[in-house]
Amino acid sequence: MSNQYLGQWGEDLAARHLCTCGYTVVARNYRHQHAEIDLIVRGYGCLVFVEVRTRKGRILIDPLSSVTKVKQRHLIRAANFYACLHQIDEALRFDIVGISLSGTSVVIDHVQDAFLFF
Questions:
Q1: What is the full DSSP assignment across 17-37?
Q2: Which of 44, 56, 86, 112 is 20 to 30 A removed from 25 (C-alpha atoms)?
Q3: What is the CB-side half-sphere exposure of residue 24 using CA atoms within 13 A?
Q4: Whole-angstrom distance, CA of residue 65 vs CA of residue 43
Q5: Which residues, 6 or more positions from 93, have their beta carbon under 8 angstroms from its beta carbon?
Q6: Chain CA centroid to CA 99, Å
Q7: CB-side exposure of 13: number of CA atoms within 13 Å?
């Protein structure tokens, strides 16, 4: 499985998971400058910008801790642009969905409020 295919597969799985948890997908792969927001979903009174991290096999760094401060700044900038462009008037949040694939085992880890706007 190529990295591109793995990433797309993970985003599809994350979107389905979030929908079953009561969220509605608003946008996928939103791009602004040097950032791409994997999923933008709405639910429970807020708009959520979701970074999806998919890992296969034995990786030393887990999917959640792989979102660096630099990546966070890029995501925040893109999210702020999206919110201004679409005149969003609701609470905003950043979540990370980590997907770990090992053999036939799949683990989905959804972290709400993974980092804050700054």
A1: HHHHTT-EEEEEEEEETTEEE
A2: 56
A3: 7
A4: 25
A5: 46, 47, 48, 49, 112, 113
A6: 11
A7: 20
CA distances from 37 to 27, 57, 103 (A): 9, 24, 28
Structural element, H or E, at residue 69: helix 69-85
Q: In a 10 Å sphere around its CB, with 0-12 CB exposed, 13-18 middle and 19+ buried, how is residue 61 labelled? A: exposed
In the prediction, which pLDDT does 100 show? Answer: 87
Which residues, in sequence order, are bridge partners of residue 27?
A: 40
pLDDT single digits (tens) 16-62: 999 999 999 999 999 999 899 999 999 999 999 999 999 887 665 66
Which domains does the chain possess?
3-115 (3.40.1350.10)
Q: Distances from the Cα of 108 to the Cαs of 36, 42, 83, 85, 101, in angstroms?
A: 21, 19, 27, 31, 9
Question: Would you tell me how many other CB atoms lie within 10 Å of the CB of residue 55?
Answer: 20
